Amino acid sequence: MPHPGAFGLLLTLHVVLAVFVLGPLSLVCVTAPVLLRATPGPPPVLLLATQLVRVLAAASALIVITGVGLVHQGSFGSVRSLDDGWLLGSLALWFVGCASCLGIVAPGMSRAIADVEAGRQARRRISAVAFGAAVSTACWLVVAALMVIKPGA
């Protein structure tokens, strides 16, 4: 089914944002525990990773905005409204994924930076950061599956 005009442009933007925002966000989150294991490493690397998590998690809101725009553009296959269960589930999982990044991964990395700067080991932060990374990555994977499968639609 072709997607011409504004709808096709918005759909393209939605998919490109998902790839180029969530891909790097997942990569940084998943490699964060490895960076912590490598400490005492250069704090600039840890600072960059922390900033990337914060910026990319916030930028993922653009994916939601374009997705909502797609729903309001009209029927997309079996999309009827934002009341569709798979869309509501996707929104909830996006929120949990972002909350995990911004509430667990980024603060854990910041605490690890403070530990390194104080001469302590950052390794004690690994389990919390790894947990946050696993939760966020699992959320993004399930959202991707929901976008493709559209269960109940």
List keywords for this structure.
153 residues; mainly alpha; 5 helices; 78% helix
State the gist of this model.
The chain is built from 5 helices and no strands.
* N-end to C-end Cα span: 17 Å
What's the helical proportion of residues? over 70%
Order of helices and strands: HHHHH
Q: Name the overall outline.
A: elongated
| Count of β-strands | 0
> Which value, in Å, is the CA radius of gyration?
18 Å
What is the total domain count? 1
Nearest-integer average pLDDT: 89
Largest sheet: none
Oligomer: single chain
Structure class: mainly alpha
Strand residues, percent: under 5%
Number of helices: 5
Overall description:
Helices cover 78% and strands 0% of the residues. The protein has five helices and no strands. Helix 1 packs antiparallel against helix 2 and helix 2 packs antiparallel against helix 4 (85-117). The two termini are 17 Å apart. The mean pLDDT is 89.
Topology record:
Elements: H1 5-37, H2 43-59, H3 61-73, H4 85-117, H5 126-149
